[in-house]
Amino acid sequence: MKNVLASIGIGNASVDTVLPSDTVRPGETVDAEVQIVGGNVEQEIGTIRFEIETRYRTEEGYEEVDVDRFTLAEGLTIEPEQEEIRDVSIEIPDRTPVTIGNVDVWIETELDIDLAIDPEDKDFLDVRPTDRLRTVFDAMEELGFSLHTAECEADPYGRYTGARFIQEFEFRVQSGPFHGDLDEVELVAQPGPDALELFVEIDRKGGLLSEMTDTDERTTRVTITSPEQSSVRQQLRREIEHHA
C-alpha cells in the first residue's frame, strides 16, 4: 500500500536545493546543496535534474522556458526517511534574464523516480545585472532616460540572439539632450564573457503617418567592452545621435 501511495506522491521522497544566496549574476557559478529525504518506502532515483527557467510573453499569453538545464547522472537508492546531501555547482548562463520589471527566474530541481510522481523543488532567484549592463543602465540615466519596462518577449524569428525569447528594456526620455526629439529607446542585451552586445531601437517623435508606417524607428547595434561609465555614455550618445 505504501508503494501505491508513493506512486501518487503521498509519502514520496522530497528534495530541497539550498543556495548560499538567491542573489546571482549571469556568468557566475553557484555552489549549492541538494538535500534529499526519503519517504515511507525505498525508492530508486535515476537522475537529479536542474532547470533554470523563466517565462516570456507571447501573443497568446505567457510561456515558461528553460534558460538552461543539466543532470546529475547518478543512480541513488533512498531508504525510508534517509537523509542524503549532494553538492552541485550551478552555472548561471550569460543569457539569464535580469529579474527587474515583470520578470521571474527560478531553479527547479526534480528527482526522476520510476513509477512515481517526480518530487520537485522551486527556488526563485534575484538576478542582478552584470557590471557592463549596470553601466549601460547608469549611462542611459545620465543621458536623461528612465527605465520604463523590462519584459521577456517571444522572438519567433530569432532576430536578435537566435533564442526563443529576448529581454527588452524600454527607456523613456525624461530630460537631457534627447528630450523633445525622441519618444523612447529600446535595448535588447546579449551578454558575453568579454563584451555586451546591445541591439538598439530608437523611436523618434513623429506624426501619425510616420508612426503608422514605423518610419519613426531606427535600429542599430552597439558592442560594449569598456566598464567605464563615461566611455559607455559617450558611445551610446554618439550612436543615438547618429540614428535620431
How does this structure look, described?
With 244 residues, the protein is an alpha+beta fold. The chain is built from four helices and 14 strands. Strands 2, 4, 5, 6, 8 and 9 form a six-stranded mixed β-sheet that branches. Strands 10-11-12-13-14 form a five-stranded antiparallel β-sheet, covered by helices on one side. β4 and β5 form a beta hairpin. α2 crosses α4.
Would you count the extended β strands for me?
14
Q: Which structural class matches the secondary elements?
A: alpha+beta
State Rg: 23 Å
Q: Which outline best applies?
A: elongated
Instruction: Note the beta-strand portion.
Output: over 45%
Low-confidence runs (pLDDT<50, min 5 residues)? Answer: 1-11, 207-213
**Succession of helices and strands:** HEEEEEEEEEHEEEEHEH
Percent range of helical residues: 10-25%
Largest sheet properties? 6 strands, mixed
> What is the residue-averaged pLDDT?
86
User: Could you give the distance between the termini?
Assistant: 71 Å
Number of helices: 4
Question: What's the arrangement of secondary structure elements?
Answer:
Layout: H1 2-7, E1 14-18, E2 23-24, E3 29-37, E4 43-58, E5 61-72, E6 76-78, E7 83-91, E8 105-113, E9 120-127, H2 131-142, E10 145-154, E11 165-173, E12 182-191, E13 196-204, H3 208-212, E14 217-224, H4 229-243
Helix pairs in contact: 2-4
